[in-house]
Specification:
Pfam family, one: HTH_17
InterPro entries: DNA-bd_dom_put_sf (IPR009061), HTH_17 (IPR041657), SinI_DNA-bd (IPR010093)
Order of helices and strands: HHEEH
Distance between the termini: 74 Å
Oligomer: single chain
Organism: Tuwongella immobilis
Shape: elongated
GO molecular function, one term: DNA binding
Protein name: Excisionase family dna binding domain-containing protein:: HTH_17
Largest sheet: 2 strands, antiparallel
Helix content: 25-40%
Length: about 80
Amino acid sequence: MLTIRTAAKLLNLSPATLYRLVAAKQIPHIRLGTGRGKILFQEPELHTWLESRHVRPALETSTNPAPNPRPKKSSRLNHLRIV
């Protein structure tokens, strides 16, 4: 079982960030006791949670960039005159 401090070091987070994740119930944890209680983490669950947060790169479907739908700056508002 890991404490807030050791879990924060393992995840490379600040303890404050880890407390926020716990409060939002966004990270698996165990709370012992009533009220505030003691917060503990199981290392395998943290590794699973961390792996689930991986952002995979999107598959590139085209090598050509999408065309810009906006007209070029020089061709905009040429029909207007400032009085």
